[in-house]
Specification:
The structure holds 2 protein chains of 2 kinds.
Chain A: H1 2-7, H2 10-47, H3 50-63, H4 67-77, H5 86-111, H6 116-123, H7 128-158, H8 170-178, H9 187-224
Helix pairs in contact in A: 2-3, 2-5, 2-8, 3-5, 4-5, 5-7, 6-7, 7-9, 8-9
Chain B: H1 9-17, H2 19-50, H3 56-70, H4 74-87, H5 94-120, H6 123-131, H7 136-166, H8 178-189, H9 192-241
The chains are: A mainly alpha, B mainly alpha.
Amino acid sequence: MSAFTSVFSADNVGFLLQGLLTTIGLSVGVVFLSLIFGSILGILRNYVKFIGKIAGIYIEIFRNTPLLLWMFACIFLVPSSLVPSATLRGALALFLYTSAVIAEIVRGGLNSISNGQFEAAKSQGFNFVQTLWYIIMPQCLHHIIPSLLSQIITTIKDTSFLAGFGILEFFRTGQIIMGQNIANVEKTTQTFLIFGLLAVVYFVICFSLSCVVRNWKKRNVDVTK
Amino acid sequence: MSGNGPFALFRWEKLFESWDQFALGFLRTLEVAALALLLALAIGIVFGVLSTTKSRILQGIVRGYVEFFQNTPLLIQIFFYYNGLAMLGLVLGKFAIGVLGVGIYHGAYVTEVMRGGIDSIHKGQAEAAQSQGFTYVQTMRYIILPQTVKIVLPPLTNQAVNLIKNTSVLAMIAGADLMYAADSWASYTLNYGPAYVVAGVLYFILCFPLSTWARHYEERLKKQGVQKEVKEQKETNVEVAV
C-alpha cells in the first residue's frame, strides 16, 4: 500500500489530472472541429463537381497515410511563427487526419439516402442547402452514428500519439512518473501501477462511449426491422 | 524548389543519395504488416467463431479480449510490451513487438468483423447443416465461413489499411520501420520535407489500392443488394397484380 501512496502522491495525482484534462480537451476540440470539417468535405465530395474532386483528393491522401506521419510533418514543418505551440500543431495533424476519416463515414451515410428525396424536397421549394440541413443530414446522421462514435473513440486513443512529441497529455504524464526515482518503491511495481492506471482510465472513457454505440444499435435495430 | 526552403532541390538530392535507408525501412514495414495481418486474421477467425458458440465462458473471454484491446490506445500497449514486459524478464525484440502488438490490437477489430459476418448468415443454415450430421466445426468450415467471405472482405481490407498505417507506431520505440527511417534521416540531415513526402508516398502506394478496391467492392455489393430488393419487390407486386 505504501508503494501505491508514494507513486500516487498528491503532486503526481495533480500532474496526471492535468494530463488527463489536456487529453480530454484535445479530444473534444479535435472531434468537434473534425465533425464539422469532415461533414463539409463529405458533402462536397458527393454533390459538388469541381471542388468535390479536390475534396476527394484530400480525403484519399489523408486516409491512406499514417496519422503519425502527419504529426511529424505538422510539428516539424509548420512554422512556429504560424502556430506557436507544439500541442496545437500536433492537434492540427489529428484534426486534418480525423476529418478525412469522418468525411468518408458521412459520404457512406449520404449514399444510403435515395435521390428521390432531393427531388421531393425541391418540388416543395427547398433549396439545396435547406434540403441538406432539414431533410438529408438528419437521416444521414441516424445511419452513421455507430461508425461516428467508433471513430470518436479512435480519435481519443490517437491523442496518445502526441506523447511521442513530448506533449504533456495523459500518456506522457504517466511516462514521466514512470521515470521518477521514488524512494522505497520497486521500479517494476511503479511501472505496473502507472500502466494499470493508464489502461483503466482510457478504458473507462472509451468503453462507456462504446456502450452508448451498442445501446443505440440495439434500440435502432428494432425500429428498422 | 530552389534556395533554402524546406523542399529545396538540394534536400531531394541528399535524399536520393541515401535511398537505401528508406528502402530498408519500407521492407521492415512490409514484413511487420504482413505478419501482423496474418496474426490478426488468425485471432479474428478463431475468436469470431468462438464468440458465436453457445458457451458463455468462451463468449466472455472473447468479449473481454475485444473490449480491452479496442478501448485502450495501441501506443500504450506497445510501450507495455517494450517497458513493462521487459521488467518481468520477458525482453522482446522490436520486430516481435511490432508483429505481436499490432497483430493483437487489430485481432480485436477483425474478431468483431468476423462475428458480424457470421451473424449475418441465416441461423437456419447452421441448423440445416447440423440436421445433416455436420459437426459445429464442419458447419463453420464448409457452410458458414465460405459465405461470410463476401460480406467481410471490404471491412477486412479497411482493417488491413489501418493495420499498415498503425505499424508506424513502431517509430516511437525506434523500430527501424519506414516512419522511423524517415524521421531519423530527417532529424540527422535536417531535411524534414522530402523525408516525410517520400514516406507518405510509400505508405500511400501500399494503402490506396487496398482502400479503393474495398470501396468499389462495397458499393457493388450494395447495388446488388438494392437490385435484389427491387427484383423481389417487383415479383411480389406481380403476384399481387395477378
